[in-house]
Amino acid sequence: MAKDEFREFKLVGTRPDRPDGLDKVTGRARYGADISAPGMLWGAVVRSPHAHARIVSIDPSKALALDGVKAVVTRADFPEGLTGEDWNLQENTIAGERALYDGHAVAAVAATSKLLAEEAARLIAVEYEVLPHVIDVDDAIKPDAPVIRAGAADASVPEGMPPNVVRYMDFGRGDVEAGFAEADLVMERSYKTEATHQGYIEPHACLGQLGADGKGEMWVCTQGQWYIRKMCTAVLGLDASQLRVTPSEIGGGFGGKTTIFMEPLSLALSRKAGGKPVKIVMSRSEVLRATGPTASASMDVKIGLKKDGTITAARAEFRMQGGAFPGAPVDMALYCCFAPYNLTNVAHVGYDVLANRPKCAAYRAPGSPMGAFAVESLLDEMCRALKIDPLQMRLKNAVKEGDKSSYGPRFGSIGLIETLEATQAHPNLSIKLGPNQGRGIAAGYWFNHNGETSVSLAISEDGTAQVSVGTPDIGGSRASIALMTAETLGIGYEDVRVNVVETGALGVNEPTHGSRATFASGKAAVIAAGHAIKEMCRRAATEWGIEPEAVEWVNGAAQPAGPNAGKHPPMTIAEIAGKMGQTGGPISGHHESVPEGVGASFGCHVVDVEVDPETGRTTILRYLVVQDAGRAIHPAYVEGQYQGGAAQGIGWALNEAYIYDDKGRLANPVFLDYRIPVASDLPMIDTVIVEVPNPGHPYGVRGVGETGITPPLPAIANAIEDAVGVRMAHLPMSPATVLAALKARG
Amino acid sequence: MRYHTPSTFRDAAQIAAGASGVTRFLAGGTDVLVQLRAGAVIPDDLIDLKKIAGVYDIARTGDGGWRIGIAVPGIALGAHEALRAEWPGVVEGMELVGSTQVQGRATLTGNLCNGSPAADSVPGLVAAGASVEVTGPDGQRTVAVQDIPSGPGKTSLKPGELISAILLPARGDHAGDAYLRFIPRSEMDIAVVGCAVSLRLDGDTVTEARVALGAVAPVVKLVPAAAQAIVGTALDDAALDKLAAAASAACAPIDDKRGTIAFRTEVAGVLAKRAAKIAYSRAKGDRA
């Protein structure tokens, strides 16, 4: 199935042991909470118990009276005058005049032990005046909803919109009304999805130190140490270069660790406590209440379809709340929702709405799963109505290289058709289903991303290589970058060590987000290795007394490029490295850029479910992920990404949701009641790696982390309809909602 | 916090009776320690019962029943073949509590005293007709399990009283029990509805039955009307429908983050039917 015009590789495409494996299984890996320092204090955060309240007063006197309590900070300890996203980050770090959601930080305290800090936090007296609140996006967009913040709307919002609308978008092409008129069937439906959390297993943790001189250090669990640096220094009014940020090993992020939460509090507490380092480790409840879940969405979709399966027109209107700050990924949802289809007439409208909830953060393909839920559900329903095979319909409308995407730009090399064809050929599709069992199919899309990237590679004296990257490894990037570097240098996988380094060691790197690490840091490492190879060829040429151009690099050694270059035995990387001190000094390679050539990734999922008609409970019988990886550098990691995306999507589809009580308090801030799937809920998830290499990357990488979470939501809804004939338009499709739908149908 | 390690239940009761602040008894600790770490309940007096002789024992009583020590963890209950053969429903209820790790600590007594209406081991005990030995500063008394919980998080035990053993009656012949719970996931969850059925047969006919429901009322409920629906029947479809209707009728649940009133009421009937079928089959001698 792969369009393989690439040569065979020695290492790329193999499955060596992961470099972090032994550390992780033996407990040697150091995560955020494992970092301690002499003289360290513990921080604890006072959080609002109200969804929306004016802060009347904060009295820390009882806390400060405790022996061992060293500092209390409130908003008064932070600079004034910030604007835009810097202000949003500061306001989210610690509330100013009002607490904007249940769990919003109001004050923080540092003490000599964790227990003492927690006791002190309970003793800080905060007086609130409770204000009206709003949680649901359809309530928040009403003209008379409680106003979260006047004046928060940006220039995109036309006059006269409801007060909580802070961004508005309206784009498309063609004539959708004319398109609908051409269709044999036009359907319009509304859908809702609830907020979900990334559910990473490692809670946020940091150790921050800040002196009166404005110089600071931070050790932190993050997807992006430069983002931590940029955001913390902005919130605290410091110079970026004066804060050095070292990332820990990371126990999951999925986008949720690309921003700041309690990190500036540890720095502010440290500064106030005379520069002693302050450690803050969130509890799971703090993670769920006060970090960055994804948005909730309310969506209307209208599609026109011909009997032959051609989509004649499509329109989407999405409303999303991303908490008490702008930033719900409604734009991304709209860009992705129709992306698999070649459309002439398409229209998109989006509203970003404020509500009394925590500030949303990125979550794996932000926005795309919600949009896919709406569009792929409606397409499935329409295929059923017209008795069209849903896979054939998708093949008929599938985008290919050169097509204009639904959101504007033309696609480069993409592999949707190959992905759909591989799906069609999979044996899972011919397995016969029993009573109350059903099969659902859906497609999904993610752009993938490049981002600012800086990588440094150095050849060691023994001919091994170290690569310094700025992208924390959350999905196998160290193994993949080591494979690509070793392949390029012609040395062994074990001869390359990839280190995720601190902010002092490289130029600015964006976080590991947008499925970019293996693409961008990998591409930069390959280019850096090329620089080192060029220098090693030059050293050999000097020794041989020939022109550098007459030397080529083959199998980890310099050799004369042809008979005219003279007869010299190959000079290995170890030989060149062993005497580099005498031949001109260290040999290294660097690359800094925003790497061009991002390749988008499409996927198609097929799920078989069984629904218990007496309880509404859905069991996943089998699950298939087919996705274009471009090139799978380390196929086991690629499969892991596919399976992980599917597992999170299954949780979102079936049981996960932020549940609020009538006072706007999060009712399920523990994993007992915030129900991510457990291992026994899932079958082994089947995967097919389609390889349509990305010509924009030296080894064809596209990025595989995110697309996999987009199809599960609609695929499962489609399977449930196939099984028991009810169409679920509101996630999660929990047993209670499915049983209610079955009862309503009678 | 004061930590006590009494060597008798009488001493434990006297420490508790003399305490004035927040008092907790510690056996497995899977509720007490979790609440302590979360800051939800920080006891002034923590009375560890694990130093008392016999608390880890499972012993046959003179009447052919069982006496189960208050610190016997779920994993030991599950490994006790004779107990499991006689009371599979009681054992499977306990085994549903928590994870493998939690099973190494969690106890029947703790699950009962935590007072949760959703406690997985309690419906099985109630259906079995189990009782508990209660020790107080002034002596001992025996109380039916269903009389221990008095509301969510509350028990009928008086200050200074504690449970010193769980007592299961003799199983007798041609009898079986079963416990089923409904959870949205497959494990590591809390019952949205739970149902235990214990019954005895004469030939194909049910001669005795007890049906208990969990998570559908402030306390685990014994439902005599549900039992009456199947006594005298061979558990035919009509009897099962009557059982389901009686179970649903006994529900007085709440709407909360875990389930709705309508869902709990409906599914209580579904589980009652399914549990009754399993108990019936076990009474017939099937060892499933």
- Over the alpha carbons, how many angstroms does the gyration radius of chain A reach? 27 Å
**Cα end-to-end separation of chain B:** 47 Å
Largest sheet of chain A: 7 strands, mixed
Oligomer: heterodimer
**Largest inter-chain contact set:** A-B, 26 and 21 residues
The parts of chain A where pLDDT drops under 50 for at least 5 residues are: 1-5
Mean pLDDT of chain B: 96
Secondary structure: number of strands of chain A: 26
Within CATH, the superfamily of the domain at 175-283 in chain B carries the name CO dehydrogenase flavoprotein, C-terminal domain
The CATH architecture name of the domain at 389-448 and 599-745 in chain A reads 2-Layer Sandwich
Radius of gyration from the alpha-carbon trace of chain B, in angstroms: 19 Å
Query: What shape does the CA trace of chain A take?
Result: globular
CATH class type of the domain at 389-448 and 599-745 in chain A: Alpha Beta
Largest sheet of chain B: 5 strands, antiparallel
CATH superfamily of the domain at 389-448 and 599-745 in chain A: Aldehyde oxidase/xanthine dehydrogenase, molybdopterin binding domain
Which class of secondary structure composition applies to the elements of chain B?
A: alpha+beta
What is the helix fraction of residues of chain B, given as a range?
Answer: 25-40%
CATH topology of the domain at 175-283 in chain B: Enolase-like, domain 1
Mean pLDDT of chain A: 97
Helical/strand content category of chain A: alpha+beta
Layout of helices and strands, plus pairs?
The complex is a heterodimer of chains A (about 750) and B (about 290).
Chain A: H1 21-26, E1 41-47, E2 53-59, H2 61-64, E3 69-73, H3 84-93, E4 98-99, E5 105-111, H4 114-123, E6 125-130, H5 137-140, E7 165-173, H6 176-182, E8 185-193, E9 205-210, E10 216-220, H7 225-236, E11 243-247, H8 263-272, E12 278-281, H9 284-290, E13 296-305, E14 311-321, H10 330-337, E15 346-353, H11 368-386, H12 390-397, H13 416-424, E16 437-446, E17 453-459, E18 465-469, H14 477-489, E19 496-500, H15 517-544, E20 551-554, E21 557-560, E22 571-572, H16 573-578, E23 588-593, E24 601-611, E25 618-628, H17 635-654, E26 685-690, H18 712-724, H19 735-745
Parallel strand pairs in A: 1-12, 10-11, 14-15, 18-19, 25-26
Antiparallel strand pairs in A: 1-5, 2-4, 2-6, 3-5, 7-15, 8-13, 9-10, 9-12, 13-14, 16-24, 17-18, 17-23, 20-21, 21-22, 24-25
Helix pairs in contact in A: 3-7, 7-8, 10-11, 11-18, 14-15, 17-18
Chain B: E1 2-4, H1 9-18, E2 23-26, H2 32-37, E3 45-48, E4 58-60, E5 66-68, H3 74-79, H4 81-86, H5 88-95, H6 100-103, H7 108-113, H8 122-128, E6 131-136, E7 139-144, E8 149-151, E9 154-155, E10 162-168, E11 175-182, E12 193-202, E13 205-214, E14 221-222, H9 224-230, H10 237-249, H11 261-283
Parallel strand pairs in B: 1-3, 2-3
Antiparallel strand pairs in B: 4-5, 5-10, 6-7, 6-10, 8-9, 11-12, 12-13, 13-14
